[in-house]
Every structure is written in C-alpha cells, then in structure tokens.
UniProtKB/TrEMBL annotation, chains A, B, C, D:
Source organism (scientific name): Nocardioides imazamoxiresistens
EC number(s) on file: 5.3.1.14
Record protein name field: L-rhamnose isomerase
EC class name: isomerase
Keywords recorded for this protein, A-Z: Cytoplasm, Isomerase, Manganese, Metal-binding, Rhamnose metabolism
NCBIfam families named in the record: RhaI_grampos
GO molecular function: L-rhamnose isomerase activity
Top-level division of the source organism's lineage: Bacteria
Length: 387, 387, 387, 387
C-alpha cells in the first residue's frame, strides 16, 4: 500500500499553468456579465494569477494570449511577473477574431490571408523569445458551418503547409502544440476536430510539434483517458487544457462535472510518465468563470487537480496489476475505486501547512482581503475580456 | 398517388414567421462578425423581413424581441410593417441579459428579482396588446453551472408560481408559449430542459399555455418527430422554432444539416393536423447567420421548409397505412422514402410563378439590388445585434 | 454538520430490490458467456439473491420476470424465499421475445396481438396476487427501426388503450410502473422513449400508475437528477432501475461509471422525500454481469448505492441552502462536493459490524465458500439466461 | 453542369461487397427472430448474395466470416460462387466468441491466448490463399467494462505486437484492414475506438495495412466525411463497412437514417479518388436485418449507395470550387444541395434496363418468386446466425 508520504515528492512537482484570460470576463454568446475587481491590464491579470500561486503553490506560470496580452516592453512584464513569483508561460495565438479570418486563417483559400495568419504566429514566436516561453499553442478555430461551404481536404493540405512555415521558425528549445476541438465556433466541420488529426499534422512536422488535449473538446462519451494513454505511448502528448463539461465545451471548473473522469485521466498521466521528473507534459487550465468569482474559481481548479492527482498516486499499482493479470475484473475495479474513494483533503491540508502554505487555500483567500482590495482599487478603465 | 396540384392548397397556407433578430449580427462567444447592410433600427429589420416575404410569399409576420425591439409608438410600427406587407408576430421576452438575472429570473430565490422578471413579461403583454400579437414566447435561459449551486426542485416550484402570474395576465385571445432547451447558457442544469418539463408547466396553467419546440434544443439522437407527434396528440404544440444543428444549439439554416429530419418532422406535423386550415401551430425560424448573408439566409430557410413540406404532403398515406398494417417494413419505408426522394424544385418554381412570385427567390433577390442598396444606405449608426 | 450517527436511521431503511435475471447469464448480441455456478432454476436465483442480502442487509426482495421465472406453485416459491430471508418483489412482464411481438405488442396494429399482450399482463397480475407483489413493471421494448415503418401517433393511442385495460385489472394495493427507454431494441423510434411520455401515459391512468426511471435509459448528457426531482415533485416517481453506463444502455454495475452522478441522483431522492419513512419509491437494480462474477457483482452494486446514499445524507443542507440563497456559487458547490468527497467506507464497515453484518461484504463473501459451493453443485442442466 | 450520361462510366465501376452473415438471422441481446427461408449453409448464403447481384449488378463479391463460414473444400466453394456469378471477397476474423477471449484476444495479458488469436488469423490467411481474397478484415471486439479492469496502455502495446505477427504473414497482394469501433461489446474502453488508433496501428505495420471505416462506429455527432477525407489524404482508407444508425451501432440499412450523410461521405470518397479506376478502396455492407426480409434489405442497401453515388457524381465541382474560393457560403452550399436534391431514380431505372438489369430491382425481386422458393425449400436444419 502506498502512503501519503510516498506520494509527496511527486505532488511537489505538480505545476498547473493558469491562463491570463481566466481573470477577465467571459460568458456565452447570450451575455458576458461583468464583475467588480476584474483586471483592466495584463499586469492586473498577472497579479491575480500570482495570487492563485501564492495561496496554493500550484500555479507557477501564467499563459498569455496574443494579441489580448500584447505589451510594448516584454522584459518589464517578465520582471513584473517574476517579482510576483510567477513565470510567463505558454503563448497562445489568435486567428479567430480578425475579420479576415471569418472563413479561415491557416487554411484559407487566399494565400494572403494564410500568410497573415502565419505572420501572426511569427509575432507570437517573437514574444516567446522575449518572455522565455517554451510553448506556442495553436488552437485552430477554423472550419465551416454548411456542407459544401468549404473543401475540407484542401484545407487540410493548406493547414499542413502553414504549420510547416510556423514550425520552421520556432527555436530549438521551443515547441509547437496543436489543439484539437470537436466543434465550435464552426458548426459543420472543424479543421482539427480530433486527436488523430492533430497527431498526423504534428507528426508530419517533427519532434518539437506536439498535441494539446483540452478535456472539453471531445464528442459525447469519448474515453479521454484512452487518448491520454495513446498520446503518451506515441510520445506526442504536449499539454493539457483542463476544464470540465456536461454537454459541449462548457469550460467549467476542472473536476466539477465528473471528478472520477479527472481521476482516470490522471491515472493514465502517471501510468505514462507524465508526472515523472523528466516529463515534458504541460498541465494548464483553460476555463471560463462566467458566473463565479474568478480567482477562487482558479484556486478551486488547481486544488481539484491536486486532489485527484493525490488519489491517483495512491493507487496500489502492484495489486492492480496482479488483479488485472489474474483476470479478476471485480478485484481490479475495486482496487481502482479504493484509490478514488480515499479522502485526501486532510492529508493535503496538513502537507500544505508543512510547506508554509495555507491549509485551506479557499478560506485563506476569502479571509485575505485580496478580493475586496481589487474591487475597491480596480474602478474605471475597461475590464479585460476576450478581446 | 398524390399529385403536386393536390397539395398546393395546403402549401398556400404555409406561413413561417421570421425573427427580427435574424437580420442583426450574431455570432459565437468567440466573435460576432459585422456585415455591411446590417439594420440599425427595428424598422430596418422589418424592412428586411418584408423583403423575405416579398420574394417568397412565405413569411407574412415578423417576431419581435423585447427589449431589443422596443419602440415608443407601437401603432406607428404596426402601420410601418403593414405598409410593407408584413404583420408583427410573436413577442419574445428576455430575462437573460440584465445583471439581476445572472443566477435566475422567474426562478430566482429573491422574490424581488422574480417580480422584476414577471413585470418584464407584463410589459411584453402590453406590447402584444399594442401590436395585436397572439403569442408571448418565453425562452427560459435559466439554470445553473455547478452541482449544488441551486436547488433545482425549489426553482421548479418558483417557476410554476411566476408563470401563473404571467398567464393570469394574458388576454383571452393570447397564448403563453414556453420553450424548452437542453443546455446553454447554463451548463449543468436548465430549468426547462425538455418537452416533458415544458408540458407539465403549461398543462398546470391552462388551455392557452402551450409548448414551443425549437428543433435545436434536444439531446444528441433525440427523435424530434416523436415529440411533435406526442405534443400534437396532447393538444399542446404551440409553436416551432426552426433551425438546424450538427452538435449543440448551432442555430444553422433549417434543413441544412439533416433535411431528412426536417421531412420527418413535417410528416408528423401534417399527420397531427398542424397544417390544417384550423391549426393553431405557429411555425417560426430562430437562427443565426453568423457567416452568411442574412436576408438570403432567411430566404433559403423558408424555402427549405416549403420544399420539405411539399415532399411530406406528397407522401402516399393510403399506401403507407396499408403497408404499415400489413407489417411490410421495407415497403412502408420505401413509400416513405419515395416521398422524400421526390425533387419538387421544378414544380415549386412553376407554382411560384403562377402566383406572381419569382420562380427562383434566391436568384431573384440576388438580382434585385436590394442587398447593394442597404449596404450603401446603412452606413453609420450601430448595427443591431443581441443587445 | 451532520454526523454519521445522524444518518444511520435513514441508512437502515435503505432497501434495494435485486433482479432474478442478474444471476443468470447475460451478454451482448455478439456473445453470452457462461459461467460456473450459474443458476438453472428460479429457486437457485432466489438463493443467490438471498445471499446478497445475507452479506449486506441491503437486498430484502427479489424481482421476478415472467415468463422466465414462471413456476407452478407460487405459494411454495414464496415460502422458499421467505425461508431464505427474502421477499418476492416486483413482477416484470415480457412482450419482446414472442414472435408475435416482432413489430409491437401493446401498440400493435393487430387487435389480437394487442389483446395477447394485455392478457400476458393479466397473467402477471395473477402472479402478483399469488406472490404478494405490489408492483407490475412494464418495460416496453416496442418501436420501429425505419422511418415510415410505423405510425408513431397511432401507436401512442393504442398504447394508452392497452395500458388502461391493464391498469383496470390491478388491485387497490398494487401499482403499474411504466419504464421509459431512449432506444434499443428498436433503433428508430421507441414507443416510450422519455420520462415525458411515460408521465403522460401514467397520468392518464390514475394514481396507482407511476413512472420507472432506469438510470441507463437516457440520451447522452441528460441531467438525470433533474428528472428525479421533477418526478418526485409531480408525485409520479414509482421506482428506479439502477445501473450505470458510459455509452448506451450498458447495464454496468451502478456507480461504476460515474459515482458522482449516482451521488447527485441520491441527493435529489432525499431532497424529494424518496428515502422518507413513508416513501413509496422503490429502488431496484437492473444490470448485466457479462464478464464479472454475478453475486459479488450484485453485492458491489448495493454497496455502491449504500455508500453514495451515506455521502448524500451527510450533505449539510442548512449550509447549502444558505449558500444557495446568498448566491455564492462556489461556496454552495463546495458544500456539495464536501459531502461527495467524504470517505464513508470506514464508518459503514463499523456500522455493519454493529448490526451483525460483515464489515467487508465483498471479502466476507469471497471467504465464505458460497461461490465454490455453487460451482461444484450446479453442474448439468441449463444455465438461466434471458429466455 | 454534369449530366447523367457523364457519370455512368463511374457508376459502372461501383461494386459493393455483401456480407454472408447479412443473410443469416441477427437481432439484439433481447431476441433474435427467425425468418422463413433463412440459409442453413454457407452455400445458401452465397446463393442469396448472388441473387442480390443478379437483380442489381452492384454486389459482385461476398465477404466471409471465419469460423461461421468455414468449409472443408474452399476450391469447391469458390467454384460454386463463381458459377452463381459472384466472387468470394474479404475474409473476416472472429476473436469474440471463444470463451478464451472473454477478457481479450490480441491484447490479452496471457501470451498463450494472444498466440491463439494470432493463429486464428493465420488460419484466415490460409483461407484467403484458397479463396483468392485480397483483404483480411480485423474487427477487434476487445476492451473492458470497468475502469481499472485492464491496463489500456499495455494492451495497446500487445496489440501492436500481435498485429505485426499477422501482418508479417499476409502475402504481397493481400492487405490487413483494421476496423475501429467506439464501443460495444466492451462498455468502458475499446482497444481500437477511433480512426486515430486504427491509423497509428496500421501505419506502424506497413503499406499493406489499412483502416476500415464502419459508418456506424463513431461517437454521436462525429463528422464522418471528414475522416473519409483525412484517411484518403493519408492513403490509408482501406475499406468501408456501410450501414446506418440513429443511436449506437444500430446496423440499419445504409442510407435509411441519414441519406444526406451518406451523400456527403460519397462526395468525399469521389473527391479523394475513392471511385477512380485505380482505387483500392473497398466498399462493403455490414448490416443487420433484424425485422425486415434479408435479401430485399440487401438489395435496398446497395441501391441506396448507388443512388447517393449518382447524386454525388452530379455535383458541379467546378462551380462549387468557384463559389468556395469566392467565399460565397450560401452559393457553395446551394450547389452542394442541388446535387443532393436531384431525383436520380428515373435515370437509374432507365440505365439499369439498358444494361439488362431490372429497372426496379426491389419490385423485380418481389415478383421473381425467389423468396417463396427459399421459404419452401429451406425447411429443417439450423438457420444461420452469428455463431
């Protein structure tokens, strides 16, 4: 049997990047509600992200989105973040909000628009050089709404060509990470709808091109942990975008909709070496706090990942393997469920305290006055959002 | 065998209400693209709707959305519409964009917010009195995002209470129509998620309360035509919101994603008397033209409904019944498919011409110069959208 | 805060009926695997069911399926069961295996076949009179595979007529419980596909007609706990068929696929009075043990229900209501998740021992030698299955 | 504009393999209904398949399933088939009905069981050598029902190893075709659940290993034509298993559930060269005629494929490309729908007659007396089914 003490070395390595845009306003196509204290600047977003890290010890880096987070002086921003104890992380490109991209960007039939989209990624790589970021994450919001509207096959070829240009530009220590998504904002076809497509596209590029798995981007019923296992087996799992969903890409707090699924995913991450000391798998949140407060929403999220990681690490793999190999279906399942059924909240609280962190980050944050402070201070200006 | 001539009396009755908001801009949570010629005022929306009717003879009424379409002088607006050959139709309420409604409106725990939402519906009924509209359509965007966030059962009771207040206010010739939706904007629970819930709520109100079936508001795989048949059987199918979908509530052009499904739905509408001369079932579009031009998008939509209605009317019901009763599965299916496989485009074009309408409404609109006219004229101002 | 001691009075009332057919062989359309020790007779099935109860204290009744479990002497069977400490429970009818029912039974176009199906239910009611069973459960395996094959509307009317005949025959202390199912064995339409249809059919019959909710019979993504809340609100939730699913009607061990969903369902059961002392809601398993051993599969299942019931009972409803009414989304969700995160296994084990039950029923059963005994004894004959 | 005459050269090449098991009984886990005239032997199955070809000219080969169709004298069977005007086609292996395979076959933890499953495929290759079949089709019914039951990652590695052994044995003119399936008969994980997994497994084997796409084996909402386009782009689309579905793997008549989807699939097949003279893509049916007559069920199926192929060939690709490149969403969609809306039944009937085939194969078969003949002749013996 594995004890909590056995697993703390791995838990210590657990790091979950938080996205700058989680601190701005988000919503649905029907309404984006504003909230007091919402950041107006990238610096305020970074301050909030650093706060999440300060209370949890789990979020040492913040991902940026270009152009939403564009600044003139990257060196200054980097120092600003480092002074707050947080690093600048993954750079996310955006080819879905410019009018030119209405019908496609990297896949567009017009070579000038494709080049514009490629150039945008070159700009992102320049930012990476300045911030020291490793990963360029590409979420391709491209596709079509009506059968016949687009030539899916030709778009796939043009995508390969555009990605090659971008890949050729990234540095030796940098990676291109390609996200896939089942649907939305396109409603008939998506150019990278599944892990298979992302895999064949990045496999054609080279070793530093990887797949990004967003937990909310699958068809109903998809066994996500199988994909995790497969991509780790193929050496192509670059990163996770964590969130949870009941229906579509709901972007809810990770672990809130199906905690057992999150557990199963983390079991496969661990099984495939994704939490090993030398692992390159990046864990990141990508969520929307449409109705709940954003900073505690993020705190809760990284805690959920930590809690399920702890349960997954407690899995008695030796006993499990023995039961699996003996063909004892119920015994193997029970060993698996025993790990999931373990309440690790107490052990985690004690361990946090031993590391100088608050035992109960949610309560500590609520008591800290930080939220009141930003609500009082951040008056006027334009609240950050998805633009 | 039924001939095309046999079905034209029913086709003549076919009327599909168009929504004012289809002419404004819409999009996804990621981006709303603007387009040249988009209306800035409710009058311009009505002018566009009337254009759809002029080219098709199919859209004699336009639905309004309150507060998006609020005006001071309803009598003037009514005359304006009538002069353009179109009537003001269904009034749609809105309880999803006011900050007070973030966590609920008709279901909110706070009685003051519930009353505010009820009052909004009273205001809508006042509008109906002024416009002569028959139907008050309520789409309830309420629900919750996280398990535990809300007491689903208590909300159901409060909903019943709020609806009763609204129902008590509508006139003897007016109807309350309650729409259901599987999910979105709420991502864990929706207060009226399915036809069953809408049915039990309106059944508790009385005879003039009916269910609205939006074709995009169901779980994957749902047999929608079964629901149509059941609601007609129960005398509770008030109206349709037509659109089509591949994944979620995609709000694509009706008939573009699964024309056979639209055919099957119309077969049940006809089977249940929904196109009879004395039918009260209202047909309406509710769509988003995110990337395509809006007026031709609407023209195409009403033509799709007309085309599938014609095919459905051509179904040889006598032969079908005989095959069904003899248990000949393949014969019954073939008779059904024969109607669906019939190309009615030529007959419809000829019939349109015989009624003084353009044979090819899409081409006629394109050739008419209307689009160029509005693009040139509608410069400046704020383009209409969902706010 | 609720303590474990607070909830034991309710836990003591928890009773889950087990189905006789769970002890026979089951499988998929591809293969039914046999297993040593499988019962050959209804008596052997009852002996196995009684064993589940003996090790858990949770399964005091066994449901029967007619004609699979038909015997000549019901009084003797009843005594046999009672001697083993178990009661005969719900009677399940079968209108899906006779050749006459290939295209329908209670809904068939041929009145002779409908009457035959009605007569079968009369026979089931006779059995109920002999066994003392309260509930007649009707799962309607009827529907069609091809559009056009059947007149869905006419079938609905015939169903109402057939059900009325059956309902008129049940005794004053008996109930008719109508199950709904999304699909399978019919693949285009099912005559009772959703709770709404079951509800309108039983509401038309009278007070002793109720809805049966099988947790595996919904469209992907359906919020089942909402339906639980709604049916309890309407006073029409007759019984549960518990099992779990990832994809279709997988009929896996309840709680094995999504334990959090089972928790949420039980929270609504409790919220709606379904575990109150005077509750009429019947809890039952309906599962297939295709590859795992059947008796421990059943033990595991009732334990899963018990475990999630305990967690659900531990929910701090006072605090939850306060958080819900204050609109604190994250606090309400956290209170909810705190109950779910509680590891009740230790408390349950101790409590079981205090009641003279084995602390660990799975281990106690494995150590008991019962499985070896039946494997040695049940040689020859025909293993029970779905026929 | 393309005329019907333009497309007949391609239509002439259209060939759809039919499965021997479609003529035997099939059903659901609840019931397999028998039907008069069902074959008792492989010869009778082949006679029925040849009948489908005789009436349609579309089904020149019949696929066999081992061991269901095992015979002693393959040369004799081959001659028997050829005399009836039909070839023996794809050989399908079976690793899902032997008790040893309950928990896996090619992926089993026990090397002896894996070797047994590999040996079965060697036997299938021997059959192929005797029948002259090109394709060995592997549908992997393996997976697990419960989380923890199996090590998904290890199974993937063992699968690769087993497939390599099989691939090494096939001849230079033979191919290994690997089918994927979302779920069933396993209900938690499937070892080859999606095209990505099939692709990475066959890509690791070599050029003569290909993917088989069964149209019913996807998650709800999956854009299948996208996968068709992608696999053709990658040169890895080996074959189709055609059927249709509303919910799960319903195995209904191809084109009966969503004819527009079948049209879209065939558009991509044509776009990717899948109907070119030198194409290696094999088209095959894989269906169940649970309630309808089997031979006309198959006739209807190949006619549906032919009809949708004709519509797809009529697509005005030049105009479509122009509309796509000009970004005219509605025009491109309309050109696409115009092809789909074309009623080709008359042209096909005339063309059939010109080739010496019945204009209306369904009617001609019904009038032929073949069904009466087999119902009279095939009395006694054991009707063929899935065992």
């Amino acid at each position: 049997m594995t004890s909590f003490a056995d697993i703390t070395p791995t838990l210590e390595r657990l790091a979950i990047e938080v996205p700058s845009w989680a601190y701005g306003n988000s919503g649905t196509r029907f309404k984006v509600f504003g909230t007091p204290g919402t950041p107006r600047t990238v610096e305020e977003k970074i301050a909030d992200a650093a706060t999440v890290h300060r209370f949890t010890g789990l979020a040492p880096a913040v991902a940026l989105h270009i152009p939403w987070d564009l600044v003139d002086d990257w060196a200054a921003l980097r120092r600003y973040a480092e002074d707050l104890g947080i690093a600048l992380g993954t750079i996310n490109s955006n080819t879905f909000q410019d009018d030119d991209y209405k019908l496609g960007a990297l896949t567009h039939t017009d070579p000038k628009i494709r080049q514009k989209a490629v150039d945008h990624h070159f700009e992102c790589i320049d930012v990476m050089d300045a911030t020291g970021s490793r990963d360029l994450k590409i979420w391709l919001a491209e596709g079509s709404n009506y059968p016949g509207q687009a030539d899916m096959r030709g778009r796939q070829d043009r995508l390969a060509e555009s990605l090659q240009k971008i890949y050729d530009r990234i540095g030796d220590e940098q990676r291109l990470v390609l996200e896939y998504k089942f649907f939305e904002p396109a409603f008939y076809h998506t150019d990278v709808p599944d892990w298979g497509t992302s895999y064949v596209q990045v496999a054609a590029l080279g070793e530093r091109a990887m797949v990004c798995l967003d937990t909310g981007h699958h068809a109903p019923g998809t066994n996500i942990e199988f994909i995790v296992a497969q991509l780790l087996r193929l050496g192509k799992l670059g990163s996770f975008d964590f969130n949870s969903r009941f229906y579509a890409d709901d972007d809810l707090i990770v672990g809130s909709a199906d905690p057992f699924q999150l557990f199963r995913i983390l079991v496969e991450v661990i099984r495939g070496g994704g939490l090993d000391a030398d692992s390159d798998v990046a864990l990141m949140l990508d969520q929307c706090h449409n109705i709940e407060k954003k900073i505690p929403g993020q705190i809760r999220s990284v805690l959920n990942v930590q809690e399920m990681t702890a349960r997954a690490l407690l899995l008695d793999r030796e006993a499990l393997t023995a039961a699996q190999e003996s063909g004892d279906v119920l015994e193997a399942h029970e060993i698996f469920m025993d790990a999931f059924s373990t309440d690790v909240r107490g052990d985690l609280a004690a361990w946090r305290e031993s590391r100088g962190l608050p035992a109960h980050p949610m309560k500590a944050f609520a008591a800290s006055g930080y939220q009141d402070g930003i609500e009082a201070a951040r008056v006027g200006g334009t609240q950050a959002g998805w633009s």
